[in-house]
Amino acid sequence: QVQLVQSGSEVKKPGSSVKVSCKASGGTLSSFAFSWVRRAPGQGLEWMGGIIPVFDIVKYAQRFQGRVTITADESTGTANMELSSLTSEDTALYYCAAAHCGGQCYSRYFYNYNLDVWGKGTTVTVSS
Amino acid sequence: QSVLTQPPSASGTPGQRVTISCSGGSSNVGIFSVNWFQHLPGAAPKLLIHSNHQRPSGVPDRFSGSKSVTSASLAISGLQSEDEAYYYCAAWDDSVNGWVFGGGTKLTVL
Predict the structure, then answer these.
(1) What is the DSSP secondary-structure string of A105-122?
(2) CB B85 within 8 A of CB B39
C-alpha cells in the first residue's frame, strides 16, 4: 500500500525557515516522483516544485525559486521541502504528492508523472 | 489568479448529472493531459481523472473526463451527497515549466 506520511504542524516567525518531510511507504524512493503543493487560506492549489530521486532531478516553480529547497533522503525514504524567508503569506496547508512508478521511475520529465497519491498535509502558520 | 479557469461553484440535486469546466491555453491544456482532483474538507486531495479521461482504480465510473483543444470537463452522474467537495483541474504548463491548477470549483449537493 503506497502511502505518504507528512511531518506535523509548524508555527514559525516571519523571516525564519520551515522544513516539511514526507515519508513514503510501499516502495523505495527511486519508485516515486514527488511534488509539493500548497493551499493558502481562500486560495486554490499551487505547485511549488518537485524531485525525481532516481535521476536526482529537482524543479522549482518560478515564484518560489531561491526560497525553496526540495531534497530526497534515500536512507530514510523521505522527501523534504524547506521554505525560507517566511512571511504571513506563506501560511498554508502544504501537501506532498507523488507518482508511484511501481518499479524504478523511467522518465526525466515531471509531466510524465501524475499526482497519484497525496499526504494528509502539514499546516504551516507564520505569525509574529 | 489561476492559470486554468474553473467556475467557482456548481450545484445539483441527488441523482443529477453535473459538469465542471476547465479552460486553459496552448501551453498547458492544449498540449498536455488534464488531471482532476477531488478535495474533501480535512482530507488529502484525491486523483479522480488522469490523462484527460482515465480513472484510477477505485474511482467510480460516475466520474468521467473529456478534453477538447484547450478546454476540459469533468462530469459527475448520479450525484451523491458525498460528492460535495472542491474539484480542481491541473495540467503541466510549458511556459512556466510546472504544474498549473484551476482555482477550484465548490460542488454543492442540494
Answers:
(1) ---S-GGGS---EE---E
(2) yes
Residue B73 reports pLDDT greater than 80: yes
Do residue A45 and residue B88 have CB atoms under 8 angstroms apart?
A: yes
**Which of B44, B46, B101 lies closest to A44 in CB terms?**
B101
Out of B44, B56, B98, the one facing A61 most closely (by C-beta) is B98
Q: What is the pLDDT of residues B96-109, one digit of tens each?
A: 999 999 999 999 99
DSSP H helical segments within B11-55, as ranges?
Answer: none
CA atoms within 13 A on the CB side of B51: 6
CA separation, residue A83 to residues A89, B90, B92 (Å): 12, 23, 23
Cα–Cα–Cα angle for B75, A119, A15, rounded to 5 degrees: 115
* Residues 6+ positions from B60 with CB-CB distance below 8 Å: none
